Input
Amino acid sequence: GRCTLFFLFFCSSLLYKIGEMDVVHVDGAAGGLKAFTDALAAQQGKDVFVLFSGSSNDKGESWCSDCVTAAPVIKKCAAEAEGVLIEATVGDRAAWKTADNAFRKEYGLTGIPCLLKWGTAAKLYEEQCAKEDLVSMLFEG
Output
């Protein structure tokens, strides 16, 4: 899909588009849960999808290999869907592995990447996020 970038900085967030899907990137490591909940609150009344993933390293890639594998599949399927995708990073490897990770505690995450449709039971974890048929179904449902 074609990416058009719109750079709007607010609450540690970056907004851009993939096809018809608005994408809000939230740096959970920098802004924590507040940045995520602020981004979520700004999307009330819309179909909201959330992708929790590992933070990027100095090369711009996630430390999480499953996240790197799933990213192109998720972006391809998102480009064919409508709504808002909030990409929330959960921290670096050390921060994610602690039981005190705010995203683990608040949302019961057990693995990343985790793609879900907010307000529903629709949720994909880890390797499932790299399966185009499953990701497409989640965005369509």
The CA atoms of residues 72 and 130 lie 8 Å apart.
